[in-house]
Amino acid sequence: MSGSPAVVSPGSAAPVSDTDALRRAPRRRSMPSAVLGLIGLLALVALVEILPRIGVLPREFFPTSSEIGSSLADLVGQASFWQAVLDTLSGWALGLAIASVAGIVLGILIGSSRFTREFTASTIEFLRPIPSVALIPIAVLLFGSEIESKLLLVVYASFWQVLIQVLYGVQDIDPVAQDTARAYGLGRWARVRYLTWPTALPYVMTGLRLAAAVALILAVTSELVIGNPGLGKLLATAQSSGAIANTYAIVVVTGILGVLVNLVFRAIERRSLSWHPSQRAELPA
Amino acid sequence: MTGILRRVGMTIGLPVLLLAAWWFASANSTDFFFPPLSQILESLVDEWFGPRLAADVLPSVLRLAAGYALAAVVAVSLGVLIGTSRTVRGVLEPVLEFFRAIPPPVLVPIFILLLGIGDGMKVVVIAFGCMWPILLNTVEGVRAVDSVLSDTARTYGITGAARLRKLVLPAASPQIFAGLRQGLSVAIILMVISELFAASNGLGFAVVQAQRSFAIAETWAGMLMLGLLGFLLALLFRVVENRQLRWYHGLRRAQRSS
Asked: Mind listing the pLDDT tens digit for each residue in B212-233?
C-alpha cells in the first residue's frame, strides 16, 4: 500500500471544509478521476437495482433504480414538478440574496472598526449556533405557510455563514496597504472599494458557497415541515400517499440540485478570484 | 483593573442592551404573538427548566448524542479506509458528494418508511445526516498527510495501528474536527426535525405542541431553550477542540508570525 503522494503538509493545510485542496495537489494517477467517479456512480445505480431484486433490501421500502428512474421521468414530464422546482429555487435565491447583502454590508461595517468588532463578538457568538429550525414555530405562528416563513429560515441560516467569513476577511487587510492607502489620502469609500473588498473577496466567496448550500437545505426543510409550496412539500405528499418510488425520485432531485448549487458556486468562486495571486486557505466558519 | 472592566463591558454590553430593548418594548405588549419578555422568561424557568427538562430536553439530547457518536465513529473509520487508497477515493468521491448534497431533512420521510417512528429512527436520521461532512473531511485529511512524514514512518517500520494512531489520525485531526463541527450543527437540526414528524417527547415535539395549542409564551421560551442548547453544545465543542488541537493552533500561530 503506497502512501498518498500529496504535498500538502498538515501544518500548512487549513482545515478546509471541502475538497478544494484536492485539485491543487499534484498527483500521479493511473486512471483519470472522472472515469473512477463514473464507475462509482454506475456501481451505486447497479446496487440499488440489484439489492432490492434479490431481496437483500426489502422490496416494499426500496424501489429499484429503474423504478426510481421511471418515476423521475414521469416527474420531469409534469408541469407541477417544474413549478415545485421553481418555488424551491426562488425561495432559495431570494433568501440567499437578502442574507448575502445583509451579511456583506454588516460584515464590512462591523469588521472595519475594532470597537464594533469587540462590542458585537459575544452577541454573534451566541446567536450564530442557534439552530435555524428553532425558528420554525415562530415562523409558522407569524406567517403560516406563506413564503415569508421560508425566507425567515433561509435568511437566518445563511446570514451567519456570510457574516462570519466577511468578518474574517476584513481583518485580513495588510496593515502596510492600509497605511499606504491612508497616506495617499484615499477616502473611506475608496478604501472599502479598493482595499477592503478585494482583500475580503476570497472569504466572501467561501461564505457565499457555504451559505448557498445551507440555504437550499433550509428551503427544502421549510417546505417539508411548514408546507410552503416546493419540492419539500411534493416530497411530503408523495410519502404520505405511499408513492415510494416518487419519494426516492424527489430525494434524488434534491441531491442533484445540491450538487449543481455547489458546482455553480465553485465556478463563480474560481472566476471571480482568477486575479487573486494565491488561493488563500479558507478559515473554518 | 480597567482592562478587565472594559472586557466585561464589551462582552455583556450589547446583549444587555438588546435584552433591555426587548424587555421594555414588549413590557405592556398586548399583541397575541409577541408576549412580554417577562412571561417568556417565566415560562422558560417554570416549564423548560422544570418538568420538561427531564421529560423532553433530556430524551432529545440523548438521541442527539447517540446519533452524533454513531456518525463520528462510522464516518472517521470509513474516512480513514477510503482516504488511504487513491482508487477507492476516486470511485467513491462523487457518490459521497451526492449523498452530502441531499438536504438531510428530506431523508426523514424515507427513514420513517424504513424504521417506523421510534427512537431508533431518530438516532439513525441524525447519524445518517451528519456523517457526510465528517466523512468527506476525514477522507481529505487522511489524503493530505505529509508525504515526508509518511515516508519517514514507513522507513522506520511504523505500520498498522501505530501508524494510524501516531501519524494518520493526528495529521488528519484538524480536518476531522472541521467536519465534526459542521456535523454538529446538522445533527442539532435533525434532532429537531425528526421530532416534528412523529414523536411523543422531545424538545422539537414540545415546541411544536406549544405552537399548535397557541401557547405563545411557551413557544418563545422553547425557542430560547433550543438556542441555549445550540449555544452550549457549540461551546462544549470548542472546549474539546481547543484541547485536542492545541498543538495545531500553536503551529499555525508560529507559522503565521514567522
From this structure: 888 888 888 888 888 888 888 8
pTM of the model: 0.81
- Which of A121, A128, A220 shows the shortest C-beta gap to B105? A220
Q: Kindly provide the ipTM of the predicted complex, given to two decimals.
A: 0.81
CA dist A86 → A89, A98, B137 (Å):
5, 18, 32
Q: Which pairs from A143-150 meet CB under 8 Å and 24+ separation? A: A145/A226, A145/A227, A145/A228, A145/A229, A146/A228, A147/A91, A147/A94, A147/A228, A149/A222, A149/A226, A149/A228, A150/A91, A150/A95, A150/A218, A150/A219, A150/A222, A150/A223, A150/A226, A150/A228, A150/A230
Q: How far apart are CA B97 and CA B93, in angstroms?
A: 6
CA dist B131 → A134, B118, B128 (Å): 22, 20, 6
Contact with chain A for residue B183, Cβ under 8 A: no
B164 contacts in chain A (CB < 8 Å): none
Q: Give pLDDT tens digits for A144-181.
A: 888 889 999 999 999 998 998 899 888 888 888 888 88
CB within 8 Å: A254 and B103: yes
Those residues with Cβ within 8 angstroms of residue B159's Cβ, 6 or more apart along the chain or in another chain: B153
Query: A253 and A245 in contact (C-beta within 8 Å)?
Result: no
